[in-house]
Design goal:
Blueprint: E1 27-36, E2 39-49, E3 53-58, H1 64-70, E4 79-84, H2 93-99, E5 100-103, H3 116-124, E6 128-129, E7 132-133, H4 136-149, H5 165-177, E8 183-187, H6 195-208, E9 212-216, H7 220-224, E10 228-233, E11 236-241, H8 243-253
Parallel strand pairs: 3-9, 3-10, 5-8, 8-9
Antiparallel strand pairs: 1-2, 1-4, 6-7, 10-11
The chain binds adenosine-5'-triphosphate.
Adenosine-5'-triphosphate binds next to α1.
Length: 255
């Protein structure tokens, strides 16, 4: 382990991670637990993260997706409190959903409109970008640009559900990123992608995007490219630190 397990600090102390504050806004968990029925999914998680690229790793069922879903209010804590860029996902759900773009591992969950171009344009409906509403022409231009970025231009008029799994994943990314969320949370975004698209998407998420990114992944090569990694096991945050060290201890524990 590169650092001691989280969540055991006495009340009143600062959550861990504060020593590594960066230029990005903060994600703060204070003694957060989540139970589904009477089964704990996360237990006493306290952490402060302000790095630009945050990897979330750990075994199957360890609580990674639950952690990610807490960030935009898809899951609510059973106890404890959360602040994401100053917002409380429980009390300010609407603001949080505008601030946090969430990319699911199953892209079918995110397709809402019949065609690819309509689905991307739908994300901008009723949204202010840079403090103002976009005109129809601006929306069309932005959609065209975003489709080009994600290699979907030739599928613009295709039924969204006719795309392959990987193409749907690209569409989901495109539809979320076009809204320019200030935090991007991606839960296994490359799971369905081939090698070329994994490179393309990981370069976009990890190298290009100016925003803060939380990346839940089993792909250790991607986790290694982040600024910090956190690791869950059995619903507890058991490690936080330099990705190489966190990945090493994870690999050792599973050798
Ligand atoms: N909606 C839910 N209802 C009941 N139990 C749930 C729910 N979501 C998650 N869990 C349980 O919480 C625990 C943590 O699940 P979670 O999806 O957060 O793990 P994970 O680390 O993302 O796993 P994986 O790597 O397999 O995707 C698991 O035991 C899971 O069965």
């Amino acid at each position: 382990m590169s650092e001691q397990p989280q969540g055991e600090q006495p009340q009143g102390e600062h959550p861990r991670g504060e020593q590594t504050q960066g230029e990005h806004p903060q994600i703060v968990f204070d003694d957060v637990s989540v139970e589904f029925g009477d089964r704990p999914a996360l237990t006493n998680v306290s952490v402060l993260l302000s790095q630009k690229r945050i990897a979330v790793i750990g075994s199957n069922g360890s609580g990674k997706s639950t952690f990610a879903r807490l960030l935009n209010g898809l899951v609510t804590p059973t106890s404890g409190s959360i602040r994401v860029h100053g917002l409380d996902p429980v009390k300010q759900g609407r603001d949080v959903r505008r601030t946090v773009g969430f990319i699911f591992s199953n892209p079918d969950a995110q397709i809402v409109m019949p065609t690819v171009a309509e689905d991307v344009a739908f994300s901008l409906r009723g949204r202010l970008l840079h403090g103002r509403k976009l005109s129809r022409i601006e929306v069309a231009d932005r959609v065209a640009e975003a489709l080009e970025t994600f290699g979907l231009t030739q599928h613009a008029e295709a039924p969204a559900h006719s795309l392959s799994g990987g193409q749907k994943q690209l569409l989901a990314l495109c539809a979320v990123l076009i809204t320019e969320p200030s935090l991007v949370v991606a839960d296994e975004p490359t799971a369905l992608l081939d090698a070329a698209n994994t490179r393309r998407i990981s370069a976009h998420l990890l190298d290009t995007l100016p925003q803060q990114v939380v990346l839940v992944t089993h792909n250790m090569a991607l986790a290694a490219r982040c600024d910090v990694a956190i690791r869950f096991e059995g619903g507890r945050l058991v490690d936080l630190g330099e990705p190489a060290a966190v990945i090493d201890s994870y690999a050792r524990d599973h050798a």
